Amino acid sequence: MAFNAPSTSHMIPAWPPEAIPPVGYLSRKALPIKRNDAEPLTREDVQFDLLQYLFNDSNIVFTNPLSGKHPKMSFGDLYISALYNSSKCSKVLKEKMLETPLFSIEFAKISLLTNVGRINTTMAFFPEMKTALRTYHPVPSLQKTDGNAQDAPRIKNCLKAALLASELKAAPPSTPEEVLEKRRAGLKPPTSVVNLIFVLANHAAPLASVHFDGSLNFLDLFLPNKTKRLSSHDRGKAFLWLLYHYLESDTGPNPFDDYYSSKHPGKIPTLHRLTMHDYENENVDTQEEIQWGSQRSHERNIFLQKLVSSIETEKKNKAGAPHFVTVSAAPEMAPSSSRSQRTGQEQLKDERQFLHYVPSQESLPPRLENRAPHMHRSRASEGNERTMLQHAWHIANTTDALMDSDEEVADHHVRLDYSRRLSVITRIRRRPPTPP
User: Which residue of 86, 181, 266, 422 shows the fewest CB atoms closer than 10 Å?
Assistant: First the structure.
């Protein structure tokens, strides 16, 4: 697999600010593949035969943007090279692409589906994915190596950063007309192959009458269609024709021309319809792929069960663990002419919060049932008055601190202690307590 070494530049691409999408983008069809979590993507979903044709095409006709030893490249090498030289392609991913050429092709095929919108950013391709924002999907036909296929958001970031060196400082072309203008001005290639595919996908509707017959558009090349039953070979050839038209030349002969396109400038080659028998023989999953997909789906379900179980256990442990509860201090309700003139800072102090400690359920001691009789003293024991210190010592030794105060019975000593405390507060404040 011939593709160039990474560029030394890692500048952030100068993408233009978000704007209203062009009309072609607004009229795009419902492209993304829709499947439930853990459901495999079949060969028909990814249009495997189309991808196989594109990356097996041996026409070395596309200009290498990095020059080097190979001035021209096939589409497969050009696309893989663009991914490899993306500033968002990680070091680990680059090493895997160099070590395992088959992995680089599989990764490029999944990336191409992301490039045109068939795979959106809610998909991931490794079963240990935990976030609820994405769904896991095995892709048996495109995961025959042991490499990590990444998730769709990382792939999308890699694609967005796959630009030419000249596009790192200035915004890349965003319309088909801008691409053609740059190429006619002598810049070849006028943009990266990845960005061109983004442009063609975003303007699929306006280009339907330019390059197609009006009933189809660029995105239809990647969609299964049992009604029209278009050949994978013909759709692949039309896709390569469009890339050559915009990247290389729109006036001279196109290496992907057929008789119709050579006689009708600007029109793609003929798309032949298949018989139902021939159509059903395309994109057929092998038995090994079906078994592998079922196995990965089973592994995913087991992983989710363990994940849910661990989350529930963690919640139970947190519920029983000691924690703090925020309690707001209740402001005094009594009006006063002097208090009404308090500053805002003093009011904030009165409204401050404090933390109430709640012990864990496991650490709570058992109820001290044997102490209950001491709380219900008879009238006979109320004769001898206690000092405040004696009463405090008595309470500490005979009362369960964890028992609700509503359960206490106020005897003579308790009432006497309350009155003494109230008297102390009155002397300190030099006035009676404020009524509630």
Answer: 266
